[in-house]
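From the pipeline queue, job 12 of 40. The input is one protein chain; the requested action is below.

Action: predict structure.
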Amino acid sequence: MKITGFRVENYTMQMDRPIADSNYPAGENLMPSSLLWIETDEGISGVAPGGGDVERFFHLLEGQDPREVVGLWRQMVDYVHKGGLVAVGGPISSIDIALWDLKAKLAEEPLWQTFGALEGRTKAYASGIGYCLSDEDLFAFYRRMAERGVDGGKLKIGLDMAADLRRIGIMRDALSVASARPQLMIDVNEYWSPKQAVRFMHEIEKHYDITWIEEPARRWDYEGLSQVSRQIKAAVATAENLKSIGEVYPLIHNQAVDIINVSTATSGFTGCRQVAHLAYAYELPVSMMNCQANYMAHLAAALPNHLAMEVVDPGREHCLDFDNHIEDGFIVLGDKPGLGIEVDEEKLRALQENPPARKSAFPFARREGAGAYVKGVDQGEVAWK
């Protein structure tokens, strides 16, 4: 079997609701997206959400056996040795995911089984990514998740202490039907400085038992993150936006992180698994970042140190059918070969032929005042102001 070609399809979807964080509290409901197909001479293709400049790497793949996934990953990473993964991690990630999908399809098994998981399920936690949502909509989201057994939630905060405290309480109350003591996580998306994080967390921890705070300072600031971790009760979580195991290592070596957030950003399944295994060597847990169709749950199910995977529901699968669901607080994966994702080409074409009239604000720029002072939300930026 040989790799013979590829196809990338770009589109923009309009989600069912906006998502927002402290850097862009107004929220955005348009999401740019792509799909990649890696094609073979036997007519079987691997599919992955994502795309980018795949052409740059295709000469390394053409004519190769697609089952040699880790070897092909190594060739791609070595190819960009001088420039690094920051600028080109996207296409490497997409290619790697498509190859793993193809490998599992050839084995006629779901990818979680290819990765060696005992069972196709992994614990979930709810993440609204809903800084812009009204208090009522916020409650409805977490209650909806709690009714499916999800007993932990993460909330975007950082610009208004009074509102943050009120909304953490709303999340806790909504989740209480799943657990008398739900896991409460908060995320400031690198908006605070380390000293701000310590000061603000001391106030929050007077009122709530926080499981972890995510990105309380810059993702790479191992000294600042370590300072935060030593001075608060909650765990510090970070790393979902780092691009390689080399960027994660300083955080672990300097005891700057208590929970590693892992994601496709770290060069696909292969790179993500390397980071998770490094964390396991240091007795550190990992938590998988959210993604379309929850496809990263296949790897999460096979990681021995995985806590819970982030799940959201803004509606990002307009042209995708997928073989998993949330039940009793877990993402339950099906038995379809590979990722269990099928692309509805007719719906994809409709999205491409009817693009939104305006440009998406995603990914969000860093908000004014970040790391220096807190710029509060303005009237009209959020529904609860």
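Job complete. Residues 3-108 form a domain with the Enolase-like; domain 1 fold (CATH 3.30.390.10).
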